[in-house]
Write a structure and sequence with these properties.
The complex is a heterotrimer of chains A (253), B (484) and C (422). Chain A has helices at 40-48, 72-77, 95-109, 117-130, 148-162, 178-191, 206-210, 230-239, 241-248, and strands at 2-11, 14-24, 29-33, 53-62, 65-66, 80-83, 90-94, 141-142, 166-170, 197-202, 215-220, 223-228. Chain A is of the alpha/beta class and 253 residues long. Chain A has a single domain (2-248), classed as Rossmann fold (3-Layer(aba) Sandwich), CATH 3.40.50.300. Chain A has a six-stranded mixed sheet with strand order 6-9-10-3-11-12, sandwiched between helices. Chain A has a four-stranded antiparallel sheet with strand order 2-1-4-5. The mean pLDDT of chain A is 88. Chain B has one domain (2-479). Residues 1-12 and 118-126 of chain B have low confidence and may be disordered. Chain C has one domain. Chain C has helices at 8-19, 28-41, 56-63, 118-123, 134-141, 374-382, 387-403, 409-419, and strands spanning 86-91, 94-96, 108-112, 147-151, 161-175, 178-183, 188-212, 217-225, 230-240, 245-254, 257-266, 272-281, 286-295, 301-310, 315-324, 332-341, 347-356, 362-370. Chain C has an 18-stranded mixed sheet that branches. Classes of the chains: A alpha/beta (253), B alpha/beta (484), C alpha/beta (422). Chains in contact: A-B, B-C. Chains B and C meet through β23 and β24 of B and β17 and β18 of C.
Chain lengths: 253, 484, 422
């Protein structure tokens, strides 16, 4: 589904990603773990197309197309979804209006007609249940005044509504209590199909107890230094990141 | 306005810029007493009206054009280079719509204004009565008979002078005296037409009333007057819309709007101002120098101004409320958008005189391109206005680094029981918000439109339904291409 | 700006010219520009937008009909001295070497305008543009013998400098005190400027040009206590270089007319400016605070906090302007003005302005006016506190936010005592 080859990216002239290689196939769940500052969030932002990040080398193919050539909104319409680590507040724009606009933009892009209001509301009801999101939140402004947990659940709710192909969860577990974590994970697991792929970015292993990955990659200093299966996450949890740092800090770039 | 028409608006810069080819009778440019005599005669006015005009004209001659305080810049206006009367030629009095020039009907149809009473606006459940003003004259006022059944008078100003002279004499100039300011004096001298509306005691006006102003002729100015009188315990919601052809010349629009709200009466006045703003280099466009003021003359009365300003090359406009009655309420909700080389200096005045009076000011300014957008407002609490309250919130949004956003509030308080709060902020559209929207599949224009509409929501919510839809689309169109 | 010119300026010029000689330390160009400005524009009336709520022309006309310039010498300033400070004294607008302390602090220099070095000469009139304002012009044309206070580079002054401007006159007089304050690169100083009138009716037209160089810090206090016969217009023209920091707290204790023009030009990146003000006024006092934060460069911040308690028939004014120029991106500017009206005849006029030409900025202002919080009063009453005491407590709490900005303990105690809240 997505193939990342030798991806280098920098922010303000400082290189953060130094040659990422990764292939994710439909139906797979990949976890990317790493210490703070290893480049995890940069990777998700680069894939989503955030302006401040400059790709200096490498290529990314998404469903056979050159992802890096696309505007952020085109990437979204092509089926790439980023669940933000810090979802932004948009005052005055109701959640429901926002989602309706986004969904219809995508449908237009796919050559489909806009969704009928009735069907849309039914879909909203159905998907809200999935993440146990209070119906009232739909009428509030996007993320405004939401608690940390509500914001994260709202991200998964949007994901459910927009039905993307590739979902990138950027530290979705940060700031979540154990119940919220279960709800979010439950949502993700329910939405999982053989056509969809997930990249789960996290600092801790605990999310991976709920969303079980097929592959685990360790990101350090802007590169994937180690890959394995879910056992690698457990190993990492036991040893801590210091072990990794020691092992790889002197590896030449 | 109908949705289909609005959809078309999205496609281009200024969709209302067409010119209607119609036979007109137009005065030669120039302003002197003879012109005023001729104008008054043309309208077959009674002697008192002519005297009113001449007095105003004499006062105007002694006044100075305001040139120093507003944050706008434009060349001096040559008042002798303007024609003060232009009207479509008509043969006889109109008995029915069939006799209105089909070109005119087409023009208003094209603008989304139906002058046929059986036609309802798309998606709107209630009817709207429309007074359509084309250049210097009112072309047609719809639903007059329906309204009259309730005792509501809604007609052109010219007709009101003929048919309701006692009301005009009593109320005209009560809130905006002919000597109020330079442009109000000019208007009092040369006003050509406008709308008059009277809601009798205890009547809730059964439909929205609306005036649609269209400037068509070249080289003319438009000087209309609107007078709204809401008698005790009555209610009316009034809408105003306006457009003009796309021309290279600047045209002057100097209107006066007066509102009188008696005891327990409420008037809601909404404007979507969409005069031609000039091209992207600042060529052409309307100079919109307007005096709008209402008085809450009776206890428990309420006047509410809501405006969405996207048009005009220069805007100079401060819809105000004099809160004379005890417990009266004044409100001002405004969205002003400037793009390209537009300049707007707009705001409000809330004059608290009665006890327990309350006012609210919500102003949202959005500047883009090379434009300058200023909020200028006065909150005055006079001595004896016990327990007066005011809350003001003025926010500015800057798009691009070539524009300016300014806030000039004046707050004058002479009563110790007053509570007045004013807040203002200036910021730009968040990059994070834009990226978030884009990540959900919205392109830049859509994202900007959505965020700006959200930013203005408090104001847009105050507009009647059908106007709100138009305003939202208009905001998106006005800001097209303003974020790179 | 349209200002109707009156003959007040000419009367002042005549009176002052008769009693004073030529001001020989100001360059001729500035002198002639200043005279020209006064002759053409005069003293501003309330028709002038900047003096809309403060008709200085009318006040001068009414209060200073007989400007005699008959000053009285001041021989002792003992009672005004602070224990722990270096004292500099200006009597009737002129720097008094005899009353001032001998300077022994390393890195601190004081030169009277008669002994200015080239650097001092180049600064004098460089910040205060005579063509901008009538009172700058008036001061320039008739400047008293001022001084240039200079803190050398890399100097941390441990002791505050206390400048006492003291006036005394046998009847009606006008003084034009003036100074230059220059804080060198990487230096730090605390300066207290204290205005007092001991006798007679005096109009003080004060002007200070302050330069705060790179990475320097000036903590400044202005104490205005000129009594019921004191009238003043005070212009502070401050310029901040890169990473400079300026904090001024102005406490307006007494004075029939106090007009403050505090203009801060932020011309170096990463600089910050803070202006605080407190006025507690009554009778027929008029206090008008005008501030300008002129953000000329990116990445700077400014903060303003002005509070007023207005009683009797007095009038308070706050007019603050945040001006962000085109290139001053990432500016962070905040302004707050809060006022309490205590009497039926008191007036407050506020005009907080934003004029902004850069888009990536955060600027805001807030102003509020109200009465003493009745529920708080009731709460205190319910705890057995009398109305009078409860009122004092609440006003004290209101003023405290500004007083707390005073970090010099000796000064803070003095102010608290003067305000009588404690």
């Amino acid at each position: 589904m997505i193939t990342i080859k030798n991806l280098h990216a920098s922010v303000d002239g400082k290189e953060i990603l130094r040659g990422i290689n990764l292939e994710v196939k439909a139906g797979e769940i990949h976890a990317i773990m790493g210490p703070n500052g290893s480049g995890k969030s940069t990777l998700s932002n680069v894939l989503a197309g955030k302006q401040d990040y400059e790709v200096t080398e490498g290529e990314v193919t998404f469903n056979g197309k050159n992802l890096l050539d696309m505007e952020p909104d085109v990437r979204a319409k092509e089926g790439l979804f980023l669940a933000f680590q810090y979802p932004v507040e948009i005052p005055g724009v109701s959640n429901i209006n926002f989602l309706k606009t986004a969904l219809n933009e995508k449908r237009t892009y796919e050559g489909k007609s806009s969704m009928e209001a009735k069907d849309f509301l039914a879909l909203v009801k159905e998907k809200q249940k999935l993440v146990e999101l209070d119906g009232k939140l739909a009428n509030r402004s996007v993320n405004e005044g939401f608690s940390g947990g509500e914001k994260k659940r709202n991200e998964i709710f949007q994901m459910a509504m927009l039905d993307p192909k590739l979902c990138i969860l950027d530290e979705t577990d940060s700031g979540l209590d154990i119940d919220a974590l279960r709800v979010v994970a439950n949502g993700v697991n329910t939405l999982k199909t053989k056509d969809k792929a997930y990249i789960v970015i996290t600092h801790y292993q605990r999310l991976l107890d709920h969303i079980v990955p097929d592959f685990v990659h360790i990101l350090y200093n802007g590169r994937i230094v180690k890959s394995g299966t879910k056992e690698l996450a457990l190993e990492l949890e036991a040893k801590g990141y210091d072990e990794i740092k020691k092992e790889f800090e002197n590896t030449p770039v | 306005m109908g949705n289909e028409i609005l959809e078309q608006h999205i496609q281009s810069d200024y969709k209302w810029g067409f010119i209607t080819d119609i036979d007109t009778e137009t005065f030669a440019p120039g302003l002197n007493e003879n012109v005023i005599h001729a104008l008054s005669k043309k309208k077959n006015e009674p002697e008192w009206m002519l005297e009113y005009r001449l007095k105003a004209y004499k006062a105007w001659l002694t006044m100075k054009e305001p040139d120093h305080w507003a944050h706008v810049h434009y060349p001096k206006i040559d008042f002798n280079n303007i024609s003060y009367y232009s009207a479509p030629k008509k043969k006889t009095e109109l008995a029915s719509l069939d006799e209105v020039d089909p070109e005119l009907l087409k023009t208003f149809e094209k603008l989304g204004i139906s002058l046929e009473e059986q036609k309802r606006l798309t998606g709107v459940s209630s009817n709207i009565a429309v007074d359509a003003v084309f250049d210097s004259v009112s072309v047609k006022t719809t639903f007059r008979e329906t309204l009259l059944e309730k005792g509501v008078i809604f007609c052109s100003f010219s007709e009101a002078v003929q048919e309701h002279p006692e009301l005009i004499k009593k109320y005209m100039g009560m809130v905006v005296p002919p000597t109020d300011n330079y442009y109000a004096a000019l208007n009092a001298a040369v006003f050509s037409d406008g709308s008059f509306c009277y809601i009798p005691k205890g009547v809730r006006c059964p439909m929205e009333l609306s005036t649609y102003f269209r400037i068509n002729a070249s080289g003319t100015g438009q000087f209309e007057r609107t007078l709204i009188v809401a008698d005790e315990g009555s209610y009316v919601s009034y809408l105003e819309g306006c457009t003009a052809p796309q021309r290279d010349e600047n045209q002057l629009h100097a209107a006066v709007v007066e509102i009188i709200a008696h005891k327990d009466a409420e008037v809601k006045y909404s404007t979507v101002q969409n005069w031609y703003p000039g091209d992207k280099d600042g060529k052409g466009g309307i100079y919109n120098f307007v005096t709008k003021r209402g008085i809450c003359s009776g206890d428990n009365s309420k006047i509410s101004w809501t405006q969405v300003e996207t048009g005009s090359a220069i805007t100079w406009k401060y819809p105000s409320v004099i809160l004379k009655g005890n417990n009266s309420i004044g409100e001002f909700y405004s969205v002003a958008v400037t793009n390209n080389k537009q300049e707007a200096d707009t705001g409000t005045k809330m004059i608290h005189i009665g006890k327990n009076t309350r006012s609210t000011i919500i102003s949202k300014g959005i500047s883009a391109g090379f434009s300058n957008n200023s909020y200028r407002g006065l909150v005055q609490i006079r001595k004896g206005a016990t327990n007066a309250r005011n809350f003001s919130q003025c926010d500015s949004l800057l798009m691009g680094d070539k524009c300016g956003a300014h806030t000039f509030p004046y707050i004058e308080i002479k009563d110790k029981t007053a509570i007045v709060e004013h807040e203002a902020t200036t910021s730009k559209i968040g990059e994070d918000q834009l990226f978030y929207c884009k990540q959900r599949g919205l392109d830049t224009e859509k994202a900007v439109g959505l965020i700006v509409n959200g930013y203005c929501k408090e104001v847009l919510n105050k507009l009647p339904m059908e106007f709100a839809v138009e305003a939202q689309k208009l905001l998106a169109v006005s800001l097209e291409g303003s974020v790179g | 700006m349209i200002a109707e010119k009156t003959n007040t300026a000419q009367q002042i010029i005549d009176a002052v010219s008769a009693s004073a000689g030529k001001v020989n330390f100001i360059n001729d160009a500035a002198l002639s520009d200043a005279m020209l400005f006064l002759e053409n524009k005069g003293i501003p009336t309330n028709k002038h937008e900047d003096y809309k709520y403060c008709n200085v022309d009318a006040i001068l006309k009414k209060e200073f009909k007989n400007l005699s310039q008959n000053f009285k010498e001041v021989t002792s300033i003992k009672e005004f001295k602070l224990e722990n400070a270096v004292t500099i004294v200006v009597v009737n607008g002129n720097y008094s070497e005899t009353l001032s302390d001998k300077i022994i602090l390393k890195g601190l220099h004081i030169n009277s305008f008669n002994n200015l070095d080239d650097n001092g000469k180049s600064i004098l009139t460089s910040q205060a543009d005579v063509n901008k304002d009538a009172f700058i012009a008036l001061n320039t044309a008739f400047s008293g013998l001022g001084f240039h206070l200079k803190v050398e580079n890399n100097t941390q002054l441990q002791i505050p400098i206390h400048i006492i401007y003291i006036s005394s006159s046998n009847d009606q007089a006008i003084t034009n005190p003036r100074n230059i304050i220059e804080i060198g690169n990487n230096s730090e100083a605390t300066i207290i400027e204290h205005q007092i009138t001991v006798q007679g009716k005096v109009f003080t037209n004060f002007l200070s040009e302050k330069l705060i160089k790179e990475n320097a810090k000036l903590t400044s206090y202005t104490i205005q206590d000129q009594g019921e016969n004191g009238f003043s217009v005070n212009t502070n023209q401050v310029k901040l270089s890169r990473a400079a920091s300026y904090e001024n707290t102005t406490i307006m204790l007494s004075g029939q007319l106090i007009r403050n023009n505090h203009n801060v030009v932020i011309s170096g990146e990463n600089a910050e400016a803070h202006l605080n003000g407190l006025f507690v006024i009554g009778n027929t006092q008029l206090v008008d605070n005008h501030t300008l934060m002129d953000h000329q460069v990116p990445n700077c911040q400014s903060n303003e906090l002005y509070k007023g308690i207005i009683n009797d028939k007095s009038i308070g004014v706050f007019n603050g302007k945040i001006f962000v120029r085109k290139d001053a991106q990432k500016t962070n500017a905040y302004q707050s003005s809060k006022n309490i009206l205590l009497s039926d005849d008191a007036t407050i006029n506020t005009k907080p302005e934003l004029e902004i030409y850069a888009n990536d900025v955060k600027c805001s202002h807030g102003t509020s006016t109200g009465k003493i919080d009745e529920s708080a009063m009731f709460y205190l009453n319910a705890r057995g506190i009398s109305n009078e005491n409860a009122k004092i407590m609440l006003l004290n709490a209101f003023a405290e936010e500004v007083i707390d900005k005073i970090t010099n303990e000796e000064l803070k105690e003095l102010i608290q005592k003067k305000l009588g809240f404690n």
